[in-house]
TrEMBL record, chains A, B, C, D:
Pfam families: Acyl-CoA_dh_1, Acyl-CoA_dh_M, Acyl-CoA_dh_N. GO terms for molecular function: acyl-CoA dehydrogenase activity; flavin adenine dinucleotide binding. It comes from the Bacteria. GO terms for biological process: fatty acid beta-oxidation using acyl-CoA dehydrogenase. Coiled coil: none annotated. InterPro entries: Acyl-CoA_dehydrogenase, Acyl-CoA_Oxase/DH_mid-dom, Acyl-CoA_Oxase/DH_mid-dom_sf, AcylCo_DH-like_C, AcylCo_DH/oxidase_C, AcylCoA_DH/ox_N, AcylCoA_DH/ox_N_sf, AcylCoA_DH/oxidase_NM_dom_sf. Homodimer. Residues 134-236 form the Acyl-CoA oxidase/dehydrogenase middle domain. This is Acyl-CoA dehydrogenase. SUPFAM superfamilies: Acyl-CoA dehydrogenase C-terminal domain-like, Acyl-CoA dehydrogenase NM domain-like. Belongs to the acyl-CoA dehydrogenase family. The keyword Ubl conjugation does not apply.
Amino acid sequence: MDFTTDETTREYQARLTEFMENHVYPAEAVHHEQLAAAPESWSAPPVLEGLKAEAREAGLWNLFLPDPRYGAGLSNLQYAPLAEITGRSPAIAPEALNCAAPDTGNMELLAEFGSEEQKDRWLKPLLEGEIRSAFCMTEPDVASSDAGNIATRIERDGDHYVINGRKWWSSGAMNPNCAIFIVMGQTDPDADRHQRQSMVLVPRDTPGVHVKRGMTVFGYTDSAHGGHAEIEFRDVRVPVANVVGGQGKGFAIAQARLGPGRIHHCMRLIGMAERALELLCRRAVDRVAFGKPLADQGVVQEWIAESRVRIEQARLLVLKTAWLMDTVGNRGAHTEIQAIKIATPLMAEWVVDKAIQAHGGAGISQDFPLAQLWVQARLLRFADGPDEVHRMSLARRELKPYRAR
Amino acid sequence: MDFTTDETTREYQARLTEFMENHVYPAEAVHHEQLAAAPESWSAPPVLEGLKAEAREAGLWNLFLPDPRYGAGLSNLQYAPLAEITGRSPAIAPEALNCAAPDTGNMELLAEFGSEEQKDRWLKPLLEGEIRSAFCMTEPDVASSDAGNIATRIERDGDHYVINGRKWWSSGAMNPNCAIFIVMGQTDPDADRHQRQSMVLVPRDTPGVHVKRGMTVFGYTDSAHGGHAEIEFRDVRVPVANVVGGQGKGFAIAQARLGPGRIHHCMRLIGMAERALELLCRRAVDRVAFGKPLADQGVVQEWIAESRVRIEQARLLVLKTAWLMDTVGNRGAHTEIQAIKIATPLMAEWVVDKAIQAHGGAGISQDFPLAQLWVQARLLRFADGPDEVHRMSLARRELKPYRAR
Amino acid sequence: MDFTTDETTREYQARLTEFMENHVYPAEAVHHEQLAAAPESWSAPPVLEGLKAEAREAGLWNLFLPDPRYGAGLSNLQYAPLAEITGRSPAIAPEALNCAAPDTGNMELLAEFGSEEQKDRWLKPLLEGEIRSAFCMTEPDVASSDAGNIATRIERDGDHYVINGRKWWSSGAMNPNCAIFIVMGQTDPDADRHQRQSMVLVPRDTPGVHVKRGMTVFGYTDSAHGGHAEIEFRDVRVPVANVVGGQGKGFAIAQARLGPGRIHHCMRLIGMAERALELLCRRAVDRVAFGKPLADQGVVQEWIAESRVRIEQARLLVLKTAWLMDTVGNRGAHTEIQAIKIATPLMAEWVVDKAIQAHGGAGISQDFPLAQLWVQARLLRFADGPDEVHRMSLARRELKPYRAR
Amino acid sequence: MDFTTDETTREYQARLTEFMENHVYPAEAVHHEQLAAAPESWSAPPVLEGLKAEAREAGLWNLFLPDPRYGAGLSNLQYAPLAEITGRSPAIAPEALNCAAPDTGNMELLAEFGSEEQKDRWLKPLLEGEIRSAFCMTEPDVASSDAGNIATRIERDGDHYVINGRKWWSSGAMNPNCAIFIVMGQTDPDADRHQRQSMVLVPRDTPGVHVKRGMTVFGYTDSAHGGHAEIEFRDVRVPVANVVGGQGKGFAIAQARLGPGRIHHCMRLIGMAERALELLCRRAVDRVAFGKPLADQGVVQEWIAESRVRIEQARLLVLKTAWLMDTVGNRGAHTEIQAIKIATPLMAEWVVDKAIQAHGGAGISQDFPLAQLWVQARLLRFADGPDEVHRMSLARRELKPYRAR
């Protein structure tokens, strides 16, 4: 066992940290202003384009993609500390590096399961950062954490599929530049539970696609990221060639996609928690109440120490999970992926909450990133499956050897 | 000891519940739409005016004011269960009954400490619901939970006071109809700590008053309530007669104002928690996941039971505090007011969090009131003094008899 | 609603407080020494007898019994604050007043359901404090929180019942002076679920009764209270007249017995928490670490404030529950009894834990009552039904109106 | 970074696991009976001697000592997973392998700071497991977590030191075979804060040494481990040569001793938590309540999953800390040692508490090791420094870079 970070990663960390300090942090205020000036545009504020160019030039592009044909060729373990750093400025850094969800998951999906034609048409511009994409899985009318509940119908009609259904929380889809939707639905309702669903590619401009509204997240629209759309699919027709990985493979692909997606979220959450702890410490030394700085008050010290203790533990579990994914594969790391999905958002939520409390009103306002960091942590307690479902599943695995007896 | 609700209160409860069912709950969707249609108006959506008229006609007006010359003449103990009911629809009901903060505290303040002229000019239209008011205390640059830190200067210059300073979180002040600001600042910087501050009335249209922007609260502008303004006072001149209760009385008046203000918040929080628990239960029986309704799943049952247990305890402490305020006065109930200020927001935050989790994405979106309920509970963990300050103060009182030995 | 304590209760409170100060607290050290000197006697230390005589003389005897023919004739609401006071010295005070479990529950049971002959033979000496009794319900081999699981067989054989089975956690039964066991078992295995069990009186000296060992509670034997026995019943024969309240009434009687039993525990837990908080405060002002008393350290202040806040809430819920039992009966107060059974042990456990932490090693040792207070609170998180069962049941009630729709 | 366990460690793990299964677990019941039969002997039950011989033969002896001249020569990182395994049976395994506290810390101390004569006389028989030792630091009258408070006087008088003072929680010292006490006290009260104390070796049979009583730990005497003694030192004279590492080195040696001591405790706590989780799972599949096994009930599943998540995180932090101690030294790992000292006992306490709850009465009784496991975890929340002190210190380090600005 060896906890040393490897040379490649350290070099990337240094380069990325420099990029954050020279480009990303200074852009935060600009990003904020541009966003406030055009709240309904649903596109990334203009400052992003420059940052993307800078990142690309700095060799910080598509770091998430382990396949060297498409991306940086880093392992999960190497990417983890980098994703963490981008999590420190989650509104800007991931997208600047073309490493933002849901595009990352969608690119992985296309790289792994897409046909050559699909790759040419959609993966290529995504890798270039020219278009964006959405993943349409969650539905308003059913508990979507149980994939078996998905009700959207995708029916074969000659050379086409005809799609009917309603999706929501399709993140990014409000962005007019979001050109392609990956839609999950039932093609084979009578097949085995895990063979019923398929994924099909639906270009945004296909007739029958109705992007209806953006869902708000607490009071945020997340417009810079293209929001979270409710979309209606009414008799939407796409060629049969648009199916990804074959009919009936929807569930398997979804599982394959979610593992890396979940760990990326967790990596960034570590960075969000670190950013919040940094803000907490700064506030603590600056702010005087009742005759002494917050930094000298026992309760605030307890928050800081406890934050450090929790962050360290979560980070190590994320790193070990990344290492497992690299060494035994995503399936072999299934339990650990669930474990970090349970532990990390709760940890980040706790740390950010304390940072908010030390900031008082400022902490929940637009003047600090804390409220938005908190919302992202909170969101991840149910996005990609609620804590309760992961706990149930993890417990079943833990109990298995005892039942067998 | 007797836990029976008295006849008067029961009668009001019945009347108010009917009003909620017939008028308030049905108005929630309309309110929401009107708000969405005019997000920058900073005024209450038009539907409110009709509700105010209905409430007045139903004898549900100014219930919070114990002085029968001005309001319903109810005791705190009688008002508590009614405020709780309004808390179930906090975006609409309190204002519909002219019982919304910060106007309630400002009306009490004027009723108790205002001159006859001040009452005529400002209290009267407030009691009629014709204008709204703001309380300008918190400042961006200091820990305002320690009133000694307040830095705004109010200098005597002949027959006038000249005000210079910056305030924020002046709730309601973005509303153009918010006509009067009660501003706290230092008049006597060299006096004893608790005699330094005064409160002066500043009409909104006084030269030098600059309402600069609305602070956001986890993404919400709270525009329906007039937002939370940052205000700059630059050489603002008001006549000496605008001081409330005499120069140097600022701290004493603030203390007097905050007691009822805090309990009103706590009363409404009980109602918010009840509303969230109701939504949680409804969701639990409606939503099926993994083969059975959430209502039959142990973890959700635990949330529901624990919510009930926590709500009941907090409500009883709020009621006892109200009774103490009625029987031994606000000062005599000081410790209990701190206790409910610590306990109730945390309780409500916990309950609403569970209701959100059971709703998944819907719970944090605009489709349910839950995210906004949560934000209000969270906000009250530091508004009117953070939990930590109340705990410190409460502990000192508890320790006093032991130190004396 | 009125939170004033009535005259009768206040007079008892004053008298009991005096008794605690003059007799009970001074006896704690003696009690401790006598216990240490004879750890295997399983009887109350000799000092108890004197205290019992004093209590009786002071009119502080059998306060728990609402029926004036047998006890003080106090309502539950009147008894609650008195039981709380006895909880401050739980090793001594309840027994000194003849108000200790399980005798209290057994006396209530005999008073309500016993035949005249049963009352004469067993209730009378119990009321006089001459003998002690045990309640044999929990079994080692089944989850006894589900009464339907109880497996002990009680078979009719002519004029006798023949009992076979194994019980444990029969509190008090190790005491040689514990003369009578109330045994619950199945008489009618084929009857309806709630008509299967009966309760029979089994004198300790009946052939076939084997008191096998005392269970330890963490490291305590609770020998002063007669321990917690494991008992084997092997072909134990008792006359048919020994059944209590009729064959098949076991479940109903158990339910009737458990309501008051649970609230008595909760009342005393409030007192235990108050004692712990008092010890915490004393320690905090006395102990200096890192240059200042614990009382001036923020984290300890937080413990103290939070303890006060939690105690107050739990006490009010216990008092309201007592009032409900007095006004609408034990069945009407069912939900509230569950609520206090969930809330109070957890609260007390939390408060005592903090007091222990402030005492360091002393806190878990024989030099302070804290470790033993903690163990009693912990024990009550599953004794008389684990929290989880109460939460499940309470949730079902809460959900009922929503399911009906 | 690489999470693979090295070959040496894996080989030891396999051998130790076999030893646990063949010798230790089967001995638990015997140990228990022997202990119950002679509760006042204060010595290890006879079964231990055989196990020690077996362990020695199996090459599982003095594994904790990194110096190959004395022990197995394992690094901290290699020893950690082995200490974890011994933690699964903490009453037996550590002592069977001669790896039990406080002897381990005392042996390390003598190996590092002892003179050749001291090593010959005391280290040798300790390494052989022939005698035992105690570490006398904590005092009843002061907050000993602040070493500056230590009040025992060690005064030079010619060629001797004269010791006067009172110690308690000297673990192991009730055992008649505990031959040597390492006593910390003030030799130079006027020196700098960290040069005031020295450590001297005091043979048990020195005149003036009064071993007064064993402290209880939640009712347990820990007699198998020699209890926790209160010791009075009255004019105890020892030769000057008995000082360890030089006069005035007490604080430095204590710091050096506590680092490894703390991590050993944490390693074993991981094993205790694993044992508790195993018992929880076994119980969950065996026990039926309300119609289904506990294993199928949501709340119990949540406990199991959450236990797994917490154990994994704590283990990784312990392992990383061990690695840091190996690579950058105990001082370089200071913050991490504090972090695991805060995190691990709380984690273990939580897991064991849940296992207890699933066992009901059995869980707190002598029939399962759970209550005793819990007590050890609880004890470690303040032994070797309370959580609060570690948090304060850790927070100061975290804040340092921000203050510098």
